[in-house]
Amino acid sequence: MTKQLLLGQTLGFSGNPLTSDWADIVEFDSAGGVLIDGDRISAVGNGAALKAAHPEADITDYGDALISAGFVDAHMHYPQTGIIASWGKQLIDWLNTYTFPEEARFGDPAYAAEAAGLTLDLALAHGTTTLTSFCTIHPESVDAFFAAAAHRNMEVVAGKTCMDRNAPGNLLDTAQSAYDDSKALLAKWHGVGRAHYAITPRFSPTSTPEQLMALGALWAENPSCLMQTHLSEQLPEIAWVKELFPDARDYLDTYERFGLLGARGLYGHAIHLEDREIARLAEIGAAVVHCPTSNTFIGSGLFDLMALARAGLSIGLATDTGGGSSFSMLRTMAAAYEIGQLRGIALHPAQLMWLATEGSAQALHMQGQIGALRPGATADITVLDLASTSAIAQRHDKAGDIWDALFPTIMMGDDRAIRDVWIAGRRRHGKSASKAAQ
Ligand code: GUN
Ligand code: ZN
Question: Which is the closest atom of ligand 1 to the Cα of 237?
């Protein structure tokens, strides 16, 4: 296969800017290049030098656009695309009013396939190259998502959402069927191409102890799987968990006591954590996932990103659509910045970009494989136009350095800022890539 050389401004990272000084670990080149060989990045460096060393490569010159690793969304619900931006409810009412009726439709394979394709295409249009999705209780919804992702050659994580109580009857499985269906689905999809299976109890209020225990056992039998769920999102939810599990020490313990706490666990939201929960998540090496547009849209609270990073937790960033209000990881970074400000912290653009790429990849235990502009990583790449609207362009034109030039796109950008997306070395979405004359 021909080598591809992408020229432009390049941004990557050699470490974690939440726990070390961002200036020490940023790898930025205003005249950079990314060499792609097959489906992998084979070199990142000075554009002119790479061009001289690889005269055989096909060149795409992006000028002063910013070449980044593709965005990695660490928690979302593809079956909720059709109810994104539904008005007026907080978590439990929102689930009952909007979410559950929509999810009930996903037993229909054609409906599920259409929603999966639409969601993945929306993600690509917004520069997101990896999605981590909840499905519904229907195995058909899982097949539809993995099949649509395979068709696009996208690296994805997903699993059958399990619920055996506190949901409408047409959305309930049982402890045994959740175990059996999840086992069959992970045997079918986990590790096939770019698919990864996550065992997926929705959250402890919708699973009996028997179901949580069955899924804990399944995880122990399949330790290479991820496990995704929700944790401490909203105060009335936490009070409900205490009623349902009177013997549990805290919300995390409703997972821990059933074998659902582990290093490959992904705990969405994690806003109102107690000290024991933070210490235990850090000790285990589990990841929490920040869902800032959802946390404001559903009215859940202010995630304490810096305190959790300082405590040693791995942190991913996510849209949580359709509780989240945007498919854009740019908008998600902006919301993370705004929540930081409400907590007295100004997250640097380098920290935001890291969270949306390497941070989320780390949370998924895929560091070095995706989310990285680094030799050896899969060539999942997003190219950002830093002057995509007149409002952004006028601010960009006054910028003093790359951070000042990038921050308006983080705060004000959307799918119009996505100049191009590459998936495993192939251009999959783009508007205006200019093929340079050699
Ligand atoms: N908690 C349990 N299910 C959900 C869901 O679908 N979205 C969000 N935001 N929180 C949840
Ligand atoms: Zn969620």
Answer: 1
Dihedral (CA of 369, 375, 381, 386) sign:
positive
Residues 373-420: pLDDT tens digits? 999 999 999 999 999 999 999 999 999 999 999 999 999 999 999 999
Q: Whose CA is nearest to atom 7 of ligand 1?
A: 323
Q: Are strands 314-317 and 381-384 parallel, antiparallel or unpaired?
A: unpaired
pLDDT score of 436: 39
Domain 4-70+372-437 has CATH 2.160.10.10: no
Ligand number nearest to the C-alpha of 206: 1
Tens-place pLDDT, residues 62-111:
999 999 999 999 999 999 999 999 999 999 999 999 999 999 999 999 99
Q: What is the residue extent of each domain of the chain? A: 4-70+372-437, 71-363
Cα of 333 vs its chain's centroid, Å: 12
Which of the listed residues 93, 103, 165, 202 should we mutate to test ligand 1's pocket, taking the one with most ligand atoms within 8 A of CB? 202
Tokens representing residue 259 in the block: 């074998």
Q: Which residue bears the tokens 């940023």?
A: 26
**Global confidence as pTM:** 0.98
The residues, any chain, with a CB within 8 Å of residue 334's CB and separated by 6 or more, are 410, 411, 412
Q: Which fold has domain 71-363?
A: TIM Barrel (3.20.20)
How much of the chain exceeds pLDDT 90, in percent? 97
**Cα of 36 from ligand 1 centre, angstroms:** 38
The neighbourhood of ligand 2, an ion, using CB within 5 A, equals 268, 320
> Which residues have CB under 6 Å of ligand 1?
77, 91, 95, 99, 202-203, 230, 233, 294, 298, 320, 323
> For residue 309, what pLDDT is reported?
97
